[in-house]
Amino acid sequence: MIQRILVLGGTGFVGRATCERLIERSGAAAGRIVVPTRRAQHGNAVRSLPTLDVVPANVHDDAQLARLVAQADAVINLVAILHGSEAEFQRVHVELPRRLAAACQLAGVKRVLHVSALGVGPGAPSRYLRSKTEGEAVLRAAGLELTILRPSVIFGAEDRFLNVFAGLLALAPLVPLACADALFQPVWVEDVASALACALDQPSSIGQIIECTGPGQFTLADLVRAAGRWSGHPRPVLPLPAALGRLQAMLMELAPGTPLMSRDNLDSMRVPNVASGMLPGLASLGITATPLDAVAPGYLGRSHGRARLERWRGGVRRD
């Protein structure tokens, strides 16, 4: 069993679930899991896990990355961004895999698991998908024992997808929605984490590209309506024509903070975010995909229902 695992992006949404699965996988024969982060507070969510070390490091620095990789038997790369400029996508999705490949070659580390995305391929329509395509190519050309996972949109209790829409629906009387007909096949974060842990120990997964999807396909409008229904805020959805949708996304990009949707996201949604059926799926790792409606109603109902209760309590006057 591989004992020393370096998890890049281990403090994020998928990373936290993955670290928990890796620890469950090792059990009594636990090795060490190392999670680098540039911001110490980001490691708080995983710092208390047994056999896991959070270390201060910048993985975009060649020397620091090389030191981390030299102490590992395997590397899992989860680092990704959904929004950014061309240069930012290149830095995260292409240059980091290139640095990782070089560090692995220098240290003699062969085993690498890399999380990419559905929809990658030559001629992909968005900066996000094109950079993900390049990142895959860099790692495949490096002579590694590589497994690539391509998930659809990932849902879970801390997701930035269904939770964001549920929060928006709590405030808006209706939702004007770009790309309402875009197709998704949502996958539970715990199934993606399990896939990474299983693939790590299955030599048959080396050289494979595994599509990580749930059992159901939904339009974006379907998912937004479901988020409203499950969170207790059912609202009508107003599909927008392409030109208005693009204008909406541009205005969202100009707002402070992380945009709910960008023009690059719209470009990505031109490619159905569903399994091709031509590559192995979760079943190849012995995993039965969890349906969206078996999980999402529970966390959306709890979190957003609690928020409504707290707002109501805050408005109660006590003499």
What do you see in this structure?
- There is one protein chain.
- The chain is an alpha/beta fold and about 325 residues long.
- The protein has a domain at about 5-155 and about 185-215 and about 275-290: 3-Layer(aba) Sandwich (Rossmann fold), CATH 3.40.50.720.
- Helix content is about 40%, strand content about 15%.
- It contains eleven helices and 13 strands.
- The protein has helices at about 15-25, 45, 60-70, 85-105, 125-140, 160-170, 190-200, 220-230, 240-255, 265-270, 295-315; strands spanning about 5-10, 30-35, 50-55, 75, 110-115, 145-150, 155, 175, 185, 185-190, 210, 220, 235-240.
- Helix 1 packs across helix 7, helix 4 (about 85-105) packs parallel to helix 5 (about 125-140) and helix 6 (about 160-170) crosses helix 8.
Radius of gyration: 20 Å
- The fold-level CATH name of one domain is Rossmann fold
Uncertain residue ranges = 306-319
Structural class, from secondary structure content? alpha/beta
What fraction of residues sit in β-strands? 15-25%
What's the oligomerization state?
Answer: single chain
Give the CATH level 1 class of one domain. Alpha Beta
CATH superfamily of one domain: NAD(P)-binding Rossmann-like Domain
